[in-house]
Amino acid sequence: NAGVTQTPKFQVLKTGQSMTLQCAQDMNHNSMYWYRQDPGMGLRLIYYSASEGTTDKGEVPNGYNVSRLNKREFSLRLESAAPSQTSVYFCASSGPTGGTQGQYFGPGTRLTVT
Amino acid sequence: AQSVTQLGSHVSVSEGALVLLRCNYSSSVPPYLFWYVQYPNQGLQLLLKYTSAATLVKGINGFEAEFKKSETSFHLTKPSAHMSDAAEYFCAVSEVIYNQGGKLIFGQGTELSVKP
User: Fold this and answer.
1) pLDDT of amino acid A53
2) Residues of chain A contacting residue B109, judged by C-beta atoms under 8 Å apart
3) Is the dihedral of CA A60, B31, A25, A6 positive or negative?
4) Mean pLDDT confidence for A76-86
5) What is the pLDDT of residue A1?
6) Minimal CB count within 10 Å: which of A57, A70, A110, B15?
C-alpha cells in the first residue's frame, strides 16, 4: 500500500515549457486534490476532483489544467510554465468523509521555472 | 468564508520545554479542524483532528489540541519538546462537501525549532 505517489520528485523547466505532474493513489479514494506550497503562504488549492469524472477550480487555478484519468490518477499540467509557478506541488486524496477525517498527502514535486 | 490564522511563523523552544503553536479559525458553521506536520522535504502527515466528538484531541507523537469555540482557537501543545519535533506545522479547517471529501483551507504554517 503505497498511499499517494507523485512523479517526478524534482523538475527544472525553462519559461514557456510545458509539463505534466502525475499523481496516483491506491486507497480507493473518490476525491483528489492538487496544492501548491510557497513560503509563508501555507498550501493553496489549485484544483480538485470530488469524484471520478469531475474537476473544479480551487483558489489558484490560473496557468494550470487537470485531468482525472480514472479513480486512481489525477494529473496537473502546466501548459506554458512561468517563474511564478516555481513551487512545491502536493497531491492529496480523501474518501467521502475526507472533509471530516482529513486528506492523505503525497511526497511532493519540487518545480523550478527559470 | 472560512480562514485560518497561525500566530508566529517561527517558534523556538528548548528540548524538554512546552510546545505551544497557536491557531485561530473563522467559520460560519461548526468547523472540522486539523493539524498537519511536515518534516523537511516530505509531504504532510495528519497529526490530529477535531470532529466535534471531544474538545481535547490527542494526536500522534504526544501532541494534543484543544478546541475552544468561544475563542475560535485550536492551539497545538506538547508538554515536553523533543529534537525530533522540529518541523513545520500547519493548521487547517475543512470546507465539507457532503459525501465528496471536502476542501482544506490551510494556515500559513509555523516552523518549530528545538534547541538542545
Assistant:
1) 87
2) 40, 42
3) positive
4) 97
5) 72
6) A70
